[in-house]
Write a structure and sequence with these properties.
Pfam families: CoA_transf_3 (PF02515). GO terms for molecular function: CoA-transferase activity. InterPro entries: CoA-transferase_III_domain, CoA-Trfase_fam_III, CoA-Trfase_III_dom3_sf, CoA-Trfase_III_dom_1_sf. This is CAIB/BAIF family protein. The mean pLDDT is 96. This protein has 15 helices and eleven strands. Helix 1 crosses helix 7 and helix 7 packs across helix 8. It has 377 residues and is α/β, with parallel strands linked by helices. It folds into two domains: 222 residues, Rossmann fold (3-Layer(aba) Sandwich); 82 residues, formyl-coa transferase, domain 3. The strands form three sheets. A six-stranded parallel β-sheet has the order 3-2-1-4-5-6, with helices on both faces. It has a three-stranded antiparallel β-sheet with strand order 7-8-9, covered by helices on one side.
């Protein structure tokens, strides 16, 4: 079947996570992605994307699983951008590309003659995406590491227990969000080019991406004048919507409306709570969340999370056990989602990776090749 983006060529100078994720999403949808990487410079410097050496863990072939996670369906070319010959080759590749993606610090690509201004003069249809940590203005010199952005961008202030220290999220979530925004921006620019024939510059930064992704927590500040704080697993605006102890494990209950709460009370033998004015509406439940939690903890204590989850789901109450990642993948398989795909390597082996989550009926994602070895064009 045809792929949605199979007529596009993307030259990808990005490394680590946000940029490679963006280009992998587009590669899954059919685009040809040429990944530009540093060549090896001896045993002490193997070259390539930094994440090639970010391990353990490694797969069975000794490749860092971090690199594998965001680099499938790409070709790799090793170019030393400090070498005039390699730099000329990079410019030639850019001249044949529809999209250029880069996440160097602001100014680096301009000094190399690979900035948007230089390339767009010769190629006005070019879509040029720059990903930075803190934009090209006052934060241009600040290093764009996910942990740093989680800290200064407010995410850690609302993550963790109220009486504990601020916590980072268990994955580099800001990079992931930024990469998805970058892919969306690239597609919007390509749509504009279809209509007008004009390319443009797309700019996305980690801090702005995080602030946008804080959604209701950010609007609490901007529109409500309230600064959110850490609440553990509780929700600032919904109750019951958190983690509860049960016999031998933990159970998540996420009631989003009064009907679900009434069903929860019926299953747990707490019908009196559904009739109590202190709990009859969501606003009332939020106001009296501690009493509500105490009642639910007592009611849930005598059965396992799995038992409660089955009965609550049957009653229409969002509930579930806390899985590890292996358990989550198994759950997706049990639901018929087919969450992973085996990708072929040049030596005949395969590597299993999680699929692209976008399902398209006419132009589905394709899985053509495993993440490349350095220079495997």
């Amino acid at each position: 079947m045809p792929a949605a983006l199979d007529d596009l060529v993307i030259l990808d100078f990005s490394r680590v996570l946000a940029g490679p994720l963006a280009t992998m999403v587009l590669a899954d949808l059919g685009a040809t992605v040429i990944k530009v990487e540093r060549p090896a410079r001896g045993e002490d410097d193997p070259g390539g994307d930094d994440t090639r050496s970010w391990g353990p863990p490694y797969d069975a072939d000794g490749v860092a699983t971090y690199f594998l996670s965001v680099n499938r369906n790409k070709r790799s070319v090793a170019l030393d951008l400090r070498d005039p010959g390699d730099l000329a080759r990079a410019r030639a590749l850019a001249a044949g590309a529809d999209v250029v993606v880069e996440n160097f610090r602001p100014g680096v690509m301009d000094r190399l003659g690979l900035g948007y201004g230089d390339l767009a003069r010769e190629h006005p249809q070019l879509v040029y995406c720059s990903i930075t940590g803190f934009g090209r203005g006052g934060g241009a010199a600040m290093p764009g590491y996910d942990l740093l952005v989680q800290a200064v961008g407010g995410l850690m202030s609302v993550t963790g227990s109220p009486d504990g220290e601020p916590q980072k999220v268990g994955v580099a979530l800001v990079d992931v969000i930024c990469g998805l925004f970058a892919a969306t921006g690239i597609l919007a620019a390509l749509r504009h080019r279809e209509r007008t024939g004009e390319g443009q510059r797309v700019e996305v930064d980690l801090l702005s991406s995080l602030l946008a992704a804080l959604v209701n927590q950010a609007s609490a500040v901007t529109a409500g004048g309230a600064v959110p704080a850490r609440m553990g697993n509780a929700h600032p605006s919904i109750a019951p919507y958190e983690l509860y102890p049960a016999r031998g494990g933990d159970l998540v209950i996420a009631c989003g409306n009064d009907r679900q709460f009434a069903a929860l009370c019926r299953v747990c033998g707490l019908d009196r709570l559904a009739r109590d004015p202190d709990f009859a509406t969501n606003a009332a439940r939020v106001a009296h969340r501690e009493r509500l939690r105490d009642a639910l903890v007592a009611a849930l204590a005598d059965r396992t999370p799995a038992d409660w989850a089955r009965e609550l789901l049957d009653a229409g109450v969002p509930a579930g056990e806390v899985n590890d990642i292996a358990g989550a993948i198994d759950l997706a398989r049990s639901l018929g989602m087919d969450p992973t795909v085996a990708l072929p390597r040049h030596d005949g082996s395969t590597v299993d990776l999680v699929r692209n989550p976008i399902w398209l009926s006419a132009t589905p994602a394709s899985y053509r090749s495993a993440p490349p070895e350095l220079g495997e064009g």
